[in-house]
Records
---
Amino acid sequence: NAGVTQTPKFRILKIGQSMTLQCTQDMNHNYMYWYRQDPGMGLKLIYYSVGAGITDKGEVPNGYNVSRSTTEDFPLRLELAAPSQTSVYFCASSPPTDYEQYFGPGTRLTVT
Amino acid sequence: GENVEQHPSTLSVQEGDSAVIKCTYSDSASNYFPWYKQELGKGPQLIIDIRSNVGEKKDQRIAVTLNKTAKHFSLHITETQPEDSAVYFCAASAIGGSARQLTFGSGTQLTVLP
């Protein structure tokens, strides 16, 4: 299994541009999460999904959107990028039988 | 909502010494407390977790203790090795919630000096 994969690894955006961060897991996990990690601030939950077709807001959802059309994929959409969205973004998934979250390698995003 | 505070933010120890990282949480409904290790350039990885029905759990050189009355829990690493150098995050969650949301602490950068 590849686990949780994220693309791209790095991206530089100009203010006002939009982009989609991709996340795929091949472990048939129903729970999926998006976090952002700012220096010295830990991980903050942006959005989560408990299964295909079901998504909900986390602690810091403003400026982002998600969709979950399949069990495997959970893309994160940034509309009108702002410098405050400069961060490292992690996707994670969790199986129904355990509470461990499995993280992807992250996407480093810079908005200038 | 839940608030998790973690101390210290940085910790340096000599190889072979012990390291202790402490966290406090605010929501008495929290009953699941995992610890994640993040190596440079990688995503966090679970190293140990504890549920509120036990006070201590060990796995080789690492252990976690929980004091529900005081709302704090700690990670203990004994006989530290250079490969233990990483950022460690504590987290808290309420098992039984529909989303199993984790609230993370701000992290501790552990450096093991050879």
---
Amino acid sequence: EDQVTQSPEALRLQEGESSSLNCSYTVSGLRGLFWYRQDPGKGPEFLFTLYSAGEEKEKERLKATLTKKESFLHITAPKPEDSATYLCAVQAINSGGSNYKLTFGKGTLLTVNP
Amino acid sequence: NAGVTQTPKFRVLKTGQSMTLLCAQDMNHEYMYWYRQDPGMGLRLIHYSVGEGTTAKGEVPDGYNVSRLKKQNFLLGLESAAPSQTSVYFCASSYSMGTGIAEAFFGQGTRLTVV
């Protein structure tokens, strides 16, 4: 069974204090790892997709990296508007037609104080 | 672009009542999904569809039924609502990329309370 574990559950930072969120996964074979941002009362919003170990993607103050067992979302010099829940999801290479599903972690609630 | 639209946004049901949640997408995506999100549990897949006329069970399908009569619509039904179905429901859609899927696009959610 595919498993995704995110840590920490919650993280509080001061504005400008860089940090990283972790997403560790267990799948039979990884087709893709996705990062989403979710604001209160809204649906998840897509950030990045990573497909292979060593891959990195950046968007403004966010950088996502991938290894064979985990992914990190690095946040550089965060601002209060970066406060949100960050979700990680994996798409596994499975038989039986399940290549079309995403398995989500429980998320990390990030709060950035001014 | 509307993207993924869910109707209604809020609903309160009494135990035993039935209702249907509607999801519509205007991106011509093949794949559509229904998730529920509960505190401390994350997003859990209820049912999904890989094309018009097809449906499949996800992680937590009991108590729910779905239909995909048109490519753009995916309906989630609760035949006899129970308090355990109090949750926020999200619909999502995606498209194929190789032998997998690209990123999923989510609706704004439906907050359902069963009393």
